Amino acid sequence: MFGFFKKLIHKDNIEFMKHTKNYLGASMIKNLLLVLSIPLFTRWLAKEEYGILSIFTSLVTLMTIGFGLNLRGGIIRYYFENEDDFDAALGSNLIFISVFNFFLLIFLFLVNNQLADFFTIDRRVFFLAVVAALFSVPLEIYLRYLQGSKQSKKFFHVSVVRIAGVLAVAIGIMYYLSKERYYGKIFGELAVTGLLAVYAIYKMTKLAKFAFDWKYIRYTLRFSLPLIPHAMSRYILGYFDRIIINQLGTAVETGIYSFAYDVGMAMNVIVMATIKAWHPIFFEEYNNKNYEKIDRKVKDYAQKIYFFAVVIILFAKETTLIIADRKYYDALEIIPVIVLGYVFVFLYTLYFQYASYRKRTELISLNTFIAGFVNIFLNYWLIPIYGYKIAAATTLFSYILLFL
Fold it and tell me: I want to staple 170 with a disulfide (CB 3.0 to 4.6 A). Which of 141, 188, 208, 403 is the partner?
């Protein structure tokens, strides 16, 4: 144990730990606030309403990919090129994505009813998810810029304001609602994300030079478009099982399953926080051909992830019994499976970095697409036979396949 903590403060880990502290701090505060809100949500919301809220969140994630075209990845990849015209590249891409979003919004408005029926959700909720996704795009681009430029402290501040603001507004509205209280969380998401989107646009206009040039669009699209199947497949692996449960089962089952993921999300918080810190460090070390240093750091990195996974699995049951209403206790048995799935997400991302550096985005998308397709097939096949809880096992299997 002493050796484990000694490695944490080794000089090779100082920069990694400094940024991880901010990313993990933001994620931990987010998770803590979500945990503190669970007693209220599980008592105020019926299980089917909890399920509706989960489907709303899933749809926002899906449509953010569509509105954003994954350009945030291409923009930051250009930033890593260390060229002196990043301002022009950013400006061109902001113009392009704004025009694209305008036409996509019109299209989604026209097919709103049909898509809402497909996802088995209220049409008003679907349209509000469209608006929330539209607001999320500039904010996600700005957050990725902060991550790539190693401004982890500012990333921390924006992320904390976002989650704290959403929950504060949501709880305030839900307190006064007597029915359909899930709208409180939806309106909180719209209000706070919308305000932060305005802030992100303001900050990026100060960074950008608005002179449209197709060469910058071609660069980002060449990097980003092949990654859209990857992003969609990641969405399928992380969220689509809830939509399938809602289609094949009930909103009650969706609510219980979603609650289990909200608890197991503690592992994903740690994985995503460390990935945000590791990504720019990996690119810098790989640029400098410090291959042995990368290998050494990765071994230390992996030990931390395994340690946290064991801790979360050991205490997940006790945590759930404390924070949740009794009607959600059926979720307990699938939480360890969810945590193991996120461990394989971490293992997969170690290899993802190499393909990303070499701009082999088509290879990344192919692997993720295969895993996502397998996940959809297994869920539609096995959920009617074994029930909604099997979705946790099919997702774990798909993450293992993705890693392999």
Answer: 188
pLDDT tens per residue, range 219-253 = 888 888 777 776 777 667 777 788 888 888 777 78
pTM tops 0.90, yes or no:
no
236: its two tokens: 């399928």
Cα gap 383→109, rounded to integer Å: 32
**pLDDT tens-digit readout, 151-204:** 778 888 888 898 889 889 998 898 888 788 889 989 999 999 999 999 999 999
What count of other Cβ atoms lies within 10 Å of the Cβ of residue 350?
Answer: 17
